[in-house]
Design a protein that fits this description.
The protein is mainly β. It starts with a helix and ends in a 10-residue tail after the last helix. Its main location: other.
Length: about 775
């Protein structure tokens, strides 16, 4: 460790050289027994150079030397700045700087020295590092850390009060005396401020008044000791602001103020504004306003505005033009927080004269009382007034007043107010319905043209309805008592209490009694407006009576004394051994239906009736359409097909032809019926069958139905407009059903077999025998 310390000191020492003494300390001596051969050593002079040398380049720095005497060796430098700033002569080891050095940019350079063989390019000595130090010269001007500094100090501060501090930095070596020393000097504003060698700026006078000048701008110079350049300097600007203190009293901007205000101005509203001037800043203004002359401090108050410092005049009570038309008084403005140490005497007095002129307005009537209270007994009616409200015109005109009832609670015509202000009741009042009647009465002035003024005033009238004993007491709750069928005598079933709709004043006493003693129950008065219902004999029989109805008479002690009969429905229950109810027959209760439920039921019934009516109307409409369709002139063209065959010749009971008698014999005048029949005549014998033509017509209709998308398909065609050629049976259409003059013999139908037997019987009759089917 000692060897390393000495080696480090040797390298860093600027003037150190290798000597035998050093070699001995480092065990480098050739006489050391631990080394058998001679060891070569590096030898060089002190390595340093002055900055900013004015002589021509290159500048000699020093010399590196090896103890080796090899003529074929050469010196080489390595490092960041080797062979650029610093170069070495290969043969002599002299080191030169090829640039002017600036210590403020770099104060030390670390290089490595090599001693190598020219031929083999191998090192003959181990590489050795060394440092070249740059010596400082006083070549830098002190520079302020900022161009502008700011400071603040209270106004009127004593001499020497610190304001702020400025700082300048000299880049020269501070370890050299005088190189980095900075000297400060105020070169502008030195009358008001000074600066010491540390850069602290202080006040130079005690009369710095913010109200005269609030900001100072001074210039401070920084210079160092005389050096290479003769002591250059730099400057900086310092802006100093004087902070305010409360050292000024407020003064009025004018000697007198005159204001006009209407007499109906609201209490607490602004009447006028007093302008004052205080040169201090707002935070140091604390103006107070005092009455000096004029005893109106009970009428007005002056409140300072926190932002403008103005005095706001406000009335403390209503103004009355008829009483006082003008107010005049003196006001003084002061500031109790002024610092008297800095007070400047000789200023103007802050006193001003205030004149307030009151203007007349048409005021509403004023009631004699803010409210009125009257009493009346309930169930009492009188034509005499209960009381009277009174209002007067406060103006000089003294107009008459008309009174109007604006609102009443509860609503209704229970109470009336006359035009003259008399209060009447129009009907008996019920305290149980409303114990108080509250009225709002308006008063209006009657103008010269008998019209009412647009402005009015109001007062409240309270009518208390005094109670009369007009309600009998009754059960306080809907009791549902129960008793065990094996209850013992004296068993308390229930405790009952009563209530009264009348006023329950202290001293009200209720009495309880039974209408008859012939029951299995008794009443015991508890003397606290309650009573106990107890078992008298015991042993109830549920098989005989499941519910006992016990009438109880409750009476009060009012005047007059009133009573009512209330019935207790006592259910007899089965009980277990512990006396707990196991099964009871509940007393029948009247089931009530709420109004909402009744409305819902009514709506449902009404909806059902409407739906039923719509269904009936729809059916009737369909029936009318059916009748209209059947009355069409072409109804005779309708073909009715029956897909049912008769029973043959022997079937004479399958069809009831009695209905045919309902058809009259005079053509188409048919009576209504379930089916439509036509009168058929016997066909004549002349003519042939038109079967072929009918078949052709049907095929044509089928083709038309198949080819025309607007027509019905042929298999649902029911109307035919072609009857075919005349046949032996002639036409079967109803168009000629009224004719009966044919003499054709239809006996040949009997030869067609049993299927045509019925037809043969019909057409085999005489012509005057008409049938309709």
């Amino acid at each position: 460790m000692k060897k390393l310390i000495l080696l480090f000191s040797l390298i860093l020492a600027p003037a150190s050289v290798y000597t035998e003494d050093f070699k001995a300390k480092l065990n480098l001596s050739p006489s050391n027994n631990s080394h058998k051969r001679f060891k070569r050593e590096w030898i060089w002079n002190q390595m340093h150079i002055m900055e900013e040398i004015n002589s021509p380049l290159p500048h000699h720095v020093g010399k590196i030397t090896s103890s080796s005497r090899n003529k074929n060796a050469m010196y080489v430098l390595e490092g960041e700045y080797a062979n650029s700033i610093f170069k070495v002569r290969e043969d002599t080891g002299d080191v030169y700087a090829f640039e002017r050095l600036d210590r403020e940019k770099k104060s030390e350079y670390e290089l490595t020295a090599l001693f190598i063989d020219r031929t083999t390019n191998k090192s003959l000595e181990p590489p050795s590092r060394f440092i070249i130090k740059v010596y400082d010269v006083n070549d830098n001007v002190p520079v302020f850390v900022q161009k502008v500094f700011n400071g603040s100090v209270p106004e009127m501060s004593p001499v020497g009060t610190s304001v702020t501090k400025v700082t300048a930095v000299d880049a020269d070596d501070p370890t050299l005396a005088g190189h980095a020393t900075v000297i400060y000097q105020v070169i502008q504003g030195e009358r008001y401020f000074t600066v010491d060698d540390s850069g602290v700026i202080s006040t130079a006078t005690a009369d710095l008044d913010r109200e005269n000048q609030s900001t100072y701008e001074i210039v401070v110079k920084a210079k160092d000791s005389p050096g290479l350049h003769g002591g250059d300097s730099s400057t900086a600007t310092v802006i100093i602001t004087l902070s305010d203190i409360n050292d000024n009293f407020p003064t009025f901007e004018q000697q007198s103020f005159h204001f006009k205000v209407f007499e109906n101005v609201r209490v607490g509203s602004e009447v006028g504004k007093l302008k004052v001037q205080d040169f201090d800043e707002p935070q140091n203004r604390n103006t107070k306003y005092n009455f000096v002359r004029g005893d109106y401090r009970d009428t007005f108050e002056i409140i300072p505005n926190a932002f403008t410092n103005d005095g706001i005049i406000k009335p403390k009570k209503p103004l009355d033009y008829e009483k006082i038309k003008e107010y005049k008084f003196d006001i003084e403005a002061t500031d109790p927080t002024v610092n008297m140490r800095f007070f400047k005497p000789g200023g103007p007095k802050s006193i001003a004269t205030i004149t307030i002129e009151v203007l007349d307005v048409d005021e509403p009537p004023i009631f004699s009382q803010p409210s009125y209270v009257y009493e009346v007994k309930e169930n009492y009616f009188t034509k005499n007034p209960l009381g009277k409200v009174l209002a007067v015109d406060p103006d000089a005109a003294k107009r008459k007043i008309r009174y109007t009832l604006r609102r009443s609670s509860p609503s209704g015509d229970y109470v009336k107010v006359s035009n003259s202000g008399d209060i009447f009741i129009s009907k008996q009042l019920d305290r149980e319905a409303s114990a108080w009647h509250n009225l709002t009465v308006a008063a209006q002035e009657i103008m010269a043209d008998n019209r009412l003024s647009d402005i009015e005033s109001h007062t409240q009238v309270y009518i208390q309805v005094l109670d009369q004993n007009d309600n009998a007491p009754e059960f306080a709750y809907p009791y549902e008592p129960k008793v065990c069928e094996n209850a013992a005598p004296g068993k308390v079933i229930i405790r009952i209490s009563a209530t009264d709709k009348d006023e329950m004043l202290p001293g009200v006493n209720f009495k309880y009694s039974l209408t008859t003693e012939d029951s299995n129950f008794t009443l015991v008065d508890n003397h606290d407006n309650t009573a106990n219902v107890t078992v008298k004999y015991g042993q109830f029989n549920r098989e005989l009576v499941k519910i006992h109805y016990l009438p109880v008479i409750i009476s009060d002690n009012g005047t007059p004394e009133l009573s009512s009969t209330n019935t207790l429905s006592i259910s007899v229950c089965k009980c277990d051994e512990k006396g707990e109810f196991t099964f009871c027959e509940e007393a029948s209760k009247q089931v009530g239906v709420s109004i909402q439920a009744l409305v819902a039921i009514f709506i449902c019934i009404l909806t059902i009736l409407v739906i039923t009516l719509l269904i009936i109307l729809r059916k009737r409409h369909k029936k009318e359409l059916t009748v209209l369709r059947k009355n069409v002139a072409e109804i005779h063209e309708q073909l009715v097909t029956y897909d049912e065959e008769g029973g043959g010749e022997m079937d004479t009971t399958s069809y009831d032809v009695s209905v045919l008698n309902s058809v009259r014999k005079n053509g188409m005048n048919l009576e209504p019926g379930p089916c439509l029949y036509a009168q058929v005549q016997k066909p004549t014998r002349n003519g042939n069958s038109g079967t072929g033509e009918m078949a052709i017509m049907i095929e044509v209709k089928k083709d038309e139905a198949d080819n025309d998308g607007d027509l019905l398909p042929y298999d649902t065609l029911h109307i035919y407009g072609y009857e075919g050629a005349e046949s032996i049976a002639e036409s079967l259409s109803s168009l000629e059903s009224g004719s009966s003059d044919s003499d054709i013999d239809y006996d040949f139908l009997n030869d067609w077999g049993p299927r045509f037997k019925m037809l043969a019987e019909l057409y085999g009759l005489e012509p005057n025998e008409d049938f309709v089917y």
